[in-house]
Amino acid sequence: MHKTARKANTLAQKTNKDAPTVTRIIDLLEKKGWLQRRAHNSDRRSQEVNLTVEGQKLVDALLPVVEEFRKSGIGGLNETDLHQMKQVLDRIYENFSNGR
User: Fold this and answer.
1) Taken in order 94, 97, 98, 100, is the CA torsion positive or negative?
2) How many Å apart are CA 21 and CA 27, to the nearest integer?
3) 8 neighbors 40 (Cβ within 8 angstroms)
4) What is the distance between the alpha carbons of residues 99 and 93, in angstroms, rounded to a whole number?
């Protein structure tokens, strides 16, 4: 099992997904054998999610593909461009989050 555990609610926050959606995703990934969940050591109400060995192999195989795809999408943009893009995308997200 991979050594870095994450709490399910932390994953929900970091991915901007609601808890039920993250739970469904975790269920699916667990059935595929790519992650395992267990009760949190200090908070039994929470669950920790860990990649299995197979899940880590999948991440290791996909990460270079994702990085190459990302580079092709932002090719030619400098740091200022990327910063401005992030600001605009953050504003769009805020607009949707605030029900505008």
Assistant:
1) positive
2) 10
3) no
4) 10
Task: State the pTM of this model.
Answer: 0.69
Kindly state the tokens that stand for 23: 């739970």
As for how many domains the chain has, the answer is 1
Rounded Cα–Cα distance for residues 23 and 33 (Å): 15
- Distance, C-alpha 95 to centroid of its chain: 22
* CATH number, position 31: 1.10.10.10
pLDDT digits (tens, 9 = 90+) for 49-87: 999 999 999 999 999 999 999 999 998 999 999 999 999
Amino acid at 40: H
